[in-house]
Design a protein that fits this description.
It comes from Desulfobulbus propionicus (strain ATCC 33891 / DSM 2032 / VKM B-1956 / 1pr3). It holds the Pfam family NMO. Keywords: Dioxygenase, Flavoprotein, FMN, Oxidoreductase. With 325 residues, the chain is of the alpha/beta class. The chain folds into two domains: 6-206 and 298-317, Aldolase class I (TIM Barrel), CATH 3.20.20; 210-295, no CATH class. Helices cover 36% and strands 17% of the residues. The chain contains twelve helices and 13 strands. The strands form three sheets. Strands 3-11-10-8-7-6-5-4 form an eight-stranded parallel sheet. A three-stranded antiparallel sheet has the order 9-13-12, covered by helices on one side. Helix 5 (123-132) crosses helix 6 and helix 7 crosses helix 12. The longest helix is centred in the C-terminal third of the chain and has 15 residues, at 303-317. The mean pLDDT is 93.
């Protein structure tokens, strides 16, 4: 059966896939545009880069596609509101936000008529986000890459949030690697769509270094571990030499705070510095965020090929949504 469209506010994605917004230049217009062209929601990672650079990338994306372009901005960032307002000014279609919870963001969304999508990991925050005016909610479970807000697996977490959210779309995120899993979340669990991040790192269009992609391709299940982040949340990453030092209790502290990017920081190490290093190819000294099931993915494909595989597999087993809102 043909997959349904995903409608968020007045925006419509022909394919119910949101590409996860991976920050520090992992998800740029180079990735977001082809995703939007394929009918999904292309997302630019808006955290950890200067506002003018973000605005330039948003404008570049909007010129290149008529599809939906979102921007993901972590609430934990010091310049969160500057990044949000800069994204709106540059023409972003949607703001996605997580890593903390902002009440004021919904007032901004209402004022500028732009959908706000909340990433949550608990029924309480999901219910609050719907009440405050979220246009959709992304349920992010423990299998996700990057910063994590829960230890609960997706197939346990999602039903508990589906029970309390009934008026807006609910998106499943965390560890989804193929179209069969996508159809399962939509058909069996009542998801309106899925968010996928790690699979798109292994795309030809993703602008990270080849060494970053090699770290994904070489990773075995035991190589994907939980790390302590100075953001104040655990994170999931590939076990690089830097991560091994962290796990061994070695001194990995930064000599100075170069970016001053976070509202609250433990200063255990500079996360922006380590993420930038990995992006640029210094995997030994970098932090390579990764979903729990990255080890299952063993080839680099174009964004179009990824969409084709997901849609073909999903539509071969998808029947109908189990839950209506």
């Amino acid at each position: 059966m043909k997959l349904p469209e995903l409608k968020i506010g007045s925006l419509i994605a022909k394919i119910p896939i949101i590409q996860g917004g991976m920050s520090i230049r992992v998800s740029t217009s180079a990735l977001a545009v082809p995703v939007a062209e394929c009918g999904g929601i292309g997302t630019i990672g808006g955290s950890g880069i200067p506002v003018p650079e973000l605005q330039e990338d948003i404008r570049k994306a909007k010129k290149a596609t008529k599809g939906v372009i979102a921007v993901n901005i972590m609430y934990a960032m010091k310049d969160f509101y500057d990044l949000v307002m800069g994204s709106i000014e540059a023409g972003a279609d949607m703001i996605i936000t997580g890593a903390g919870f902002s009440r004021d963001i919904f007032k901004i969304g209402a004022k500028f008529n732009i959908p706000i999508v909340s990433i949550v990991s608990s029924p309480g925050l999901a219910k609050l986000a719907e009440k405050l005016g979220a246009a959709a909610i992304i349920v992010e479970a423990t299998e996700a890459g990057g910063h994590l807000g829960t230890e609960t697996p997706l197939r346990e977490l999602f039903p508990s949030i589906r029970k309390v959210v009934s008026k807006i779309p609910l998106i499943a995120a965390g560890g989804i690697t193929n179209g069969f899993e996508m159809a399962e979340m939509m058909d069996k669990y009542g998801a309106d769509g899925v968010q996928i991040a790690s699979r798109f790192v292994l795309s030809k269009e993703c602008s990270v270094s080849e060494k970053f992609k090699e770290a994904f391709l070489k990773a075995k299940q035991e190589d994907i571990v939980l790390v302590s982040s100075p953001v104040g949340m655990p994170g999931r990453a590939v076990k690089t030499p830097f991560v091994e030092k962290m796990l061994n209790g070695d001194d990995i502290s930064a000599k100075s705070c170069l970016f001053k990017c976070l509202k609250k920081c433990s200063y255990k190490y500079c996360i922006s510095e380590r993420l930038r290093a990995a992006h640029d190819g210094d995997v030994e000294n970098g932090l390579v965020f990764s979903g729990a099931n990255t080890f299952k993915m063993k080839e680099i494909l174009s964004v179009q090929e990824i969409f084709n595989q997901f849609v073909q597999a999903a539509e071969s087993v998808y029947k109908e949504k189990a839950v209506q809102y």
